[in-house]
Amino acid sequence: METAIKTSTIKDKLIFEFETSKLFLFGDTQIRDQAMESFYKQGIPTRNHEEYKYTPISSILKGEFDLSTSKNCNDEQIEPLKFLKEAYNVIIENGIFVEGLSNLENLPKGVTICSLVNAATSNSAVFEKHYAQYADIKTDPFIALNTAMTKDGVFIHIAKNVVIEKPIHIIHIATAFENTIIHPRNLIVVDENAQVKIVESYQTVDSKAKTFSNALTEIVVDNHAIVDHYKIQDENACLPERKELGYLMNTTQVIQKKQSVFSTHTFTLSGALVRNNLTIVLDDEHIESHLNGLYITSGNQVVDNHTVVDHRKPNCNSNELYKGIIDGKSTATFNGKIFVRKDAQKTNAFQSNKNILLSEDGTINTKPQLEIYADDVKCSHGTSTGKLDQEKIFYLQARGIGLTNAKKLLMHAFASEVVNTVKIEALRDYIEGKIAKTFE
Q1: Which of 58, 106, 154, 405 is most buried, by CB atoms within 10 Å?
Q2: Residue limits of the SUF system FeS cluster assembly SufBD core domain (predicted)?
């Protein structure tokens, strides 16, 4: 929808666009109204907001941004982005589900993949039960903004006892000829005893201007279900000469039920600014949660990872490992919180953040946190930051390996602990190839 807007701030523009377009958007208008009211109260966060202290969102959004979206990509442009040959491919361009470019033939019985617009009517029972029920619009302005403004996205429902062998690959594409804000949305519901692998990739394609993607994914993992979730954030892969164009605000909200297993892996390889908000709620007993992350930064990049693991019930386990390699004048942040509620006895929760600084100008801000209200738990957290080990470099050089190759070997070894957690072989090979190219 093209709209001529002459208001003064991006906040004004967003509110104006919402009021003129909300009647044409899918879903419950009341939910959208509440979300926009929450966004209005919170506003665009500045560096004075503790949670956004190291994320210069307000300065980025000071410029002129268009709020309309259009579909421009074709098969030739999208084909290289389908790096998993054995997968069900879902194409999301500028937040809009593109069925014609997706590859969803021969879906197993009990698997539904469609646009959120269609799901609101054709799968209304599941949609209404779960949509906008977990990501709290009052806790973050970008959750509120996405809930109010999203135009479309993908709905995935895996029925009870269904096991999918092939992964589902959601390919998020941002493309623009003018600076544009988009709001992609995913709702993934995995029923009891079901198993699935979900891969999300984010890239900017054929853009002449900045794109700010405010993406939100809600994942429901029911009793005894197993979900492997992967995020590949490589905004500048298709535009290596224009590193300032891709901005990504990525929020993932997960709710787990009894004896479920959820593993998520986040690989941030490029992007002018990438902010990840990941919240996992362990809302029953005997749950397992695994969080792994790797971020490799250079130039003037800003990468910010905020994680929350909320243990609400007893006898649950969570493990978290994030690693970063920081070069140039880039800035990386890790802020990890673990909550152990009063009733969550017998909790095992572990968190680790490790970083390597390759330059004098790079910056890492790390803040692991524990809040424990139960007395029978095993919890730990730790962080370390340093340079490449000179003794190890000397050891490798003494055995005939050049300085540059010695550094590459050490960085690869450092990253491999996270890469090796990837269970899809083709995806692991793809990530290793990307990392090797980055180290060049």
Answers
A1: 154
A2: 175-414
- Whole-structure pTM over 0.90, yes or no? yes
Enumerate the β-bridge partners of residue 279: 253, 308
Contact 184, 250 (CB under 8 A): no
- Per-residue pLDDT tens over the stretch 370-398: 999 999 999 999 999 999 999 999 999 99
pLDDT tens digits, 245-301:
789 999 999 999 999 999 999 999 999 999 999 999 999 999 999 999 999 999 999
349 located within any domain? no
Same-domain check for residues 258 and 130: yes
On whether both 406 and 278 belong to a single domain, the answer is no
Residue 4 has pLDDT above 60, yes or no: no
393 and 279 in a single domain? The answer is no
pLDDT of residue 159: 98
Residue 351: pLDDT above 60?
Answer: yes
Classify residue 87: in a domain, yes or no: yes
Q: In what order do the strands lie in the sheet with 226-234?
A: 96-97, 88-93, 168-174, 195-204, 226-234, 261-270, 288-297, 317-326, 347-357, 377-386
> Computed from CA positions of residues 425, 154, 293, 297, in that sequence, does the dihedral angle turn out positive or negative?
positive
Residue 74 tokens read as 């074709």
Long-range contact set of residues 419-426: C-beta below 8 Å, sequence gap at least 24: 419/294, 421/263, 421/265, 421/290, 421/292, 421/321, 422/230, 422/265, 423/197, 423/228, 423/263, 424/84, 424/167, 424/197, 424/199, 424/228, 424/230, 426/83, 426/84, 426/85, 426/86
Q: Show the domain range for 394.
A: 388-440
> Do 279 and 393 have their domain in common?
no
